[in-house]
Specification:
By secondary structure, the chain is of the alpha/beta class. The protein folds into two domains: 3-116, HUPs (Rossmann fold, 3-Layer(aba) Sandwich); 157-283, HUPs (Rossmann fold). 44% of the residues lie in helices and 21% in strands. The chain has ten helices and ten strands.
Length: 286
């Protein structure tokens, strides 16, 4: 992993996400792109007949560049440790956040996008908003969501949530996750939330086959499996993140997957309110 993109709106939550991401970048020796999307009314579809002076647009972009420089200075000046120092570049573009991020991704070799969550409900408010849902639906790169409650601590255990329905896709994402886990020296806990008293025999065969595939191809000994019985996926994941010494939760976003249903579920905000660990979302392989 070489480059992490931080999307920021200069809020306190976005600043916290950048601080978390900077420590992560130091750990994995990655450089940083600080990115801000400047919303100029005249360029927005809903602006109608509003006339927005060119001078005002230029001022907005100039202010954005200044704020990005201030954030860059803050991150660099707070780093008093020896060792690797991430290189930081700044990008300001006009447009909605999802389009600006995709523009930066297309012009730079970005491996991960980091973004902060907003609102008193933290991750729940972020996930339930149309703006953020679009970000999850459109991103072509792994997306890490940082809540205001996320502690800036080393990542030592990563929970990878799966229902073993799309095993080949899960394996591909797991293989992408392993290099990050190696750099962090972190364990990976394959997590399955099931509602039966015990996993059905057919599912048990899938799990055994999956673990054999991982053992044969992953070349990483610190991968374990843990099934957790709970009638609701979100409740089970919340319990695991709160009591399982988990430092990061990883999920795959694909249409009609259990994560997709979770995003649309009325229980999402309840689950998110209990998760303080980073949520890393992998887009499904096309």
């Amino acid at each position: 992993m070489k480059t992490i993109l931080f999307a920021t709106d200069f809020s306190a939550n976005a600043r916290h996400a950048a601080e978390y991401g900077y420590i992560l970048a130091k750990q994995i020796k990655a450089n940083i792109i600080l990115c801000n999307a400047v919303i100029i009314p005249a360029e927005m579809p809903q602006s109608g007949l509003v006339v927005w002076p060119m001078e005002e647009s230029e001022l907005l972009l100039m202010d954005s560049k200044k704020e990005l420089q201030h954030l860059k200075t803050h991150l660099e000046s707070a780093d008093h440790e020896q060792g690797f120092k991430p290189g930081i570049i700044c990008r300001s573009e006009s447009g909605i956040m999802t389009n600006v991020i995709q523009s930066v991704i297309s012009s730079h070799s970005v491996d991960l996008v980091v973004i902060g969550t907003h609102g008193s409900s933290g991750l729940g408010h972020f996930l339930l908003g149309n703006h953020s849902s679009n970000m999850i639906d459109t991103t072509t790169k792994p997306l890490m969501l940082i809540s205001p409650e996320t502690p800036v601590l080393p990542v030592k255990k990563i929970a990878f949530a799966t229902d073993f329905t799309h095993m080949e896709s899960d394996l591909e994402c797991l293989y992408h996750l392993i290099p990050l886990a190696k750099l962090l020296d972190a364990k990976i806990l394959l997590t399955h939330i099931y509602s039966e008293q015990q996993p059905a025999p057919e599912l048990r065969k899938k799990i055994d086959h999956f673990m054999v595939q991982v053992s044969n191809k992953a070349n990483y000994p610190h991968i374990y499996y843990r099934g957790l019985k709970n009638g609701h996926i979100e409740t089970g994941l919340s319990w695991l993140c709160e009591h399982g010494q988990i430092d990061m939760l990883v999920m795959i976003h694909r249409p009609h997957s259990f994560f997709y249903k979770l995003l649309k579920s009325s229980h999402c905000e309840k689950m998110a309110g209990h998760i303080a660990v980073p949520l890393l979302i992998y887009p499904a392989e096309k």
